[in-house]
Amino acid sequence: MKPHPDVAALLAAWRDTPAGDEDLRARIGATVAALKNLRRDRPELFSPEAARLVRPAPDVAAPRGGQAPQAPRPPVQADPTQVLRDVFGFPSFRPGQRELVDAVLSGRDALGVLPTGSGKSLTYQLPARMLGGVTLVVSPLIALMKDQVEAMGRVGLRATFLNSALDAEERRSRVAAVRRGEYELVYAAPEGLEGAAGAALAGARLSLVAVDEAHCISHWGHDFRPAYRNLAGLRARFGGAPVLALTATATPKVATDIAEQLGMRAPALFRGSVFRPNLQLHVVKKGGDGPGSRDEILDRVRARRGQSGIVYCIARKSAESVAEFLRSRKVKSMAYHAGLEAGERERVQDAFLGGKADVVVATVAFGMGIDKPDIRYVIHRDMPGSVEGYCQEIGRAGRDGEPSDCVLLYSWADVMAHDRLAEGTDDAATSRLQRQKARAMFEWAEASGCRHRLLGRHFGEEIPPCGSSCDACAPARAVATRAGLVRRAVAPRRTRG
Hints:
Helix content is 40%, strand content 15%. The chain is an alpha/beta fold. The strands form three sheets. Strands 3-4-2-5-6-1-7 form a seven-stranded parallel β-sheet, with helices on both faces. A six-stranded parallel β-sheet has the order 8-13-12-9-11-10, with helices on both faces. A two-stranded antiparallel ribbon has the order 14-15. Helix 1 packs antiparallel against helix 2 (22-41), helix 6 (97-105) runs parallel beside helix 7 (122-131) and helix 18 (412-423) packs antiparallel against helix 19. The radius of gyration is 25 Å and the shape is globular.
């Protein structure tokens, strides 16, 4: 069977398009969209060659000479709200999503600071479907790329990942497919862009570069990763495609640094509110004559018996011992940390997502990218190393909007533990910054006043007192138990062991 006649006409029209004839380019874009829909519904009408030509619009829209265009802007024909409903199944956008999507579709750089659970990934997934070409997603979450790709497959997006977990043969196969334009989304770790992933994308036309966990590029961020610094030349390296940077936590200083490091040009900025009223924040100082931390944790877990929760610890040994203690008290709990084999980490994650484990006791290695909306509590056995880290971790609770508990146990000994961790950092400036962040976290825990309001101030947002979503504003609140709801006094500055 010969290529579909419209495909041949499309190619000829593109080759002969006078520079600046946007009307003709728009008509070509409409033809591309129609052919893609026809290919999806009636694939038997297309030969393999014709099918390849109409897979993504950029394959048929290559300019003379085969070189990738600078900042390509194929015409967008569909309405984003319609794509949101038809492809992703959501009736409406969440706050911040539409603003970022519109910026990306118009070809602007954009920076989104949206809380955990606010749907940041949609802001590049939806444009990936509308723009055509390849959307590169830079993500540090190598262990979760497979899950993300599978999730995209379920909604009909063609996605793949390129990382060190692939064997040589599979990597070559995927690289060849990327170069043929067979994928809309390609996930890669920042380290991978210096190797096979970067080489594969050099032959593809990128419509968008999305940088997830973008705070990792900033020395001022709470989770700086040197490999992210190499992303600074992404725009020039990949043909001037617009850049979308996303993070859940960034102070104004960090946001400015992200934009500078990525070479963003007058980026559209949308900053969501850190205030989530369904999260009940509680702070408990360790020490004194009261029960120990284990009993405090057990008490909180039993108050949410049968519900999902995460307990965070600083050390791997602590995670294992607390998980064992909870199991000895008939709580379905498992430990998770970076010292476990990859297969064991996957087993724990699957058990938690599938409801076979109620509690995961983990270090900070657990939680990023976990798509579980009904986590009812997050307990910190030890104080996190920064306010930003704390905000990221409590953000994993209550993504479904239902009331959820966030309990922080802290002491000055936790600050000293973070100081010891900072001593292992080679860079003196980074070590000093880590010490400062740990002390800022301790000061936040010690401060009086609405805890949500204090969080907002840390990130440059002024919000009124929450009124009922923290232990400072509502010292007495209802907590769930097996027998139903009971009242329990929770003093704002209570001391427990």
